[in-house]
Design a protein that fits this description.
This protein has about 425 residues and is mainly beta. It is about 0% helix and about 40% strand. Strands 1-28-27-26 form a 4-stranded antiparallel sheet, with no helix packed on it. The two termini are about 30 Å apart.
Length: about 425
């Protein structure tokens, strides 16, 4: 654990002003981890695509515009765009947002700024992937039937939305959970299927077995990424508990040089450790964040772990490859970025007497708190005194500024922070 609850209280002074990032020491004018006052309202903006929305995914376009997406009802979602100045873009979609005929769980931006979104169907037995123009119009060149959307059956109901990534050739990699045949009603169990689409939306049958591969040791995928060599890495929940990582070759086969036969299980602290976000550093190592347990309570302690290229915990980082992260009240890691020698994790924090808020943590390359980031390596951001904020994704723009997205006041929420160059 980075700091004890007692020492954390000494470092932090709770400030209940709307939208303030809580800092108590050091220069505040340009410190990385400070809200960027040139963005939105004091560094924050809330986007309202309908009466209720939950932000799940985001991406950054070449002009600095931020595209956010998520769900609006049990069966529908939305995409919205915020300009680099922090204003809802009225030229995007229909007055700033576009409805999507399924919940959006993942989003990616193509090199030409078009937007790819993925999500489950209402019954969680199929995966939907759709393509939109840079200004939020459905791109009907995508898919075999030219309707801008493809729907792929992955198997029995799993209850988990798909994760998605784009490789260097514009191919779309999707990882989704599916129910295992014969376990639907008694001892239900799920596994993960990974599939790849070509840029036009058709199944890439050169990947795996006719376009897909099953990872049976993993129950639920939480994120998927493609490394510089075109290998696919899937992060998720291991079948028997702990953090699961699987690496596939660019041809869709288990990479036997990673972990044990292409798979690595990491049982961290307690019985409910889950990895939610991952990123590659400049040496190709994997950095993962998520939640563990403290005193038998899940989600009270976050972690950042680093893995070697071959899938072993990097013992030069933190304690035997893992750094536990704590805020007063609890921390649950959700997303992570690497900026040179700095690692930044976004998570949900819940402080005593306050509603859940965004928390960001800066670590050095060896896993110690980065004293140049925020206040002693940490900062807290709230979107309002009555808002239960839930972070989802952390990004870095071309200027090094950090973009945190998620949900606040039952709307899409975006915050921008000064980063390594901002």
């Amino acid at each position: 654990m980075i700091v004890s609850a007692g020492s954390a209280r000494q470092l932090w002074a709770v400030v209940a002003m709307v939208g303030m990032t809580v800092l108590v020491a050091g220069p505040v004018s340009a410190a990385p981890g400070m809200l960027d006052p040139t963005f939105g309202e004091n560094g924050r903006v809330i986007v309202a695509p309908g009466t209720h929305a939950e932000g799940a995914a985001a991406g950054i376009q070449s002009d600095g515009g931020i595209v956010v997406a998520g769900r609006t009802t049990a069966s529908r979602g939305a995409i919205a765009r915020v300009t680099s100045a922090g204003v809802t873009d009225p030229a995007f979609g229909h007055s700033g947002d576009t409805g999507v005929p399924f919940q959006v769980s993942s989003l990616a931006i193509l090199p030409d700024d078009r937007i790819v979104v993925a999500g489950p169907d209402f019954g969680f037995e199929k995966v939907n992937v759709a393509l939109y123009s840079r200004d939020g119009r459905l791109d009907r060149t995508f898919g075999r039937d030219r309707r801008g959307r493809v729907t792929i059956r992955v198997g029995r109901k799993s209850g988990a939305g798909p994760a998605m990534a784009i490789d260097s050739l514009g191919r779309i990699v999707v990882a989704a959970g599916r129910g295992v045949r014969g376990t639907r009603y008694r001892n239900p169990r799920t596994e993960v299927v990974v599939l790849r689409l070509l840029a036009d939306g058709t199944i890439d049958r050169s990947f795996g077995q006719r376009g897909r591969l099953t990872v049976r040791a993993m129950e639920v995928p939480t994120e998927v990424a493609v490394d510089a060599s075109g290998r696919v890495v899937v992060l998720g929940v291991d079948r028997v508990g702990g953090v699961g990582l699987s690496r596939l070759t660019s041809k869709g086969r288990l990479d036997r040089s990673f972990g044990q036969g292409g798979y690595r299980r990491t049982p961290l602290v307690g019985g409910c450790s889950v990895g939610y976000g991952m990123a590659f550093d400049r040496n190709g190592r994997l950095v993962v964040t998520g939640e563990a347990s403290a005193s038998g309570q899940c989600g009270r302690t976050g972690f950042v772990a680093r893995y070697t290229v071959r899938g072993s915990l990097d013992r030069r980082f933190g304690r035997n490859g893992v750094r536990l992260v704590s805020f007063p009240g609890g921390f649950s890691g959700r997303s992570i970025v690497v900026q040179g020698d700095r690692i930044v994790a976004l998570g949900e924090i819940a402080s005593a007497g306050l509603r859940p808020a965004f928390g960001i943590v800066g670590l050095t390359n060896v896993g110690t708190l980065d004293g140049l980031f925020g206040s002693g390596g940490r900062a807290r951001t709230s979107f309002g005194q009555r808002s239960a904020d839930s972070p989802a994704q952390l990004l870095a723009d071309s200027s090094g500024r950090l973009i945190a997205t998620g949900t606040a006041e039952m709307r899409f929420a975006v915050a921008r922070y000064r980063g390594s160059s901002g």
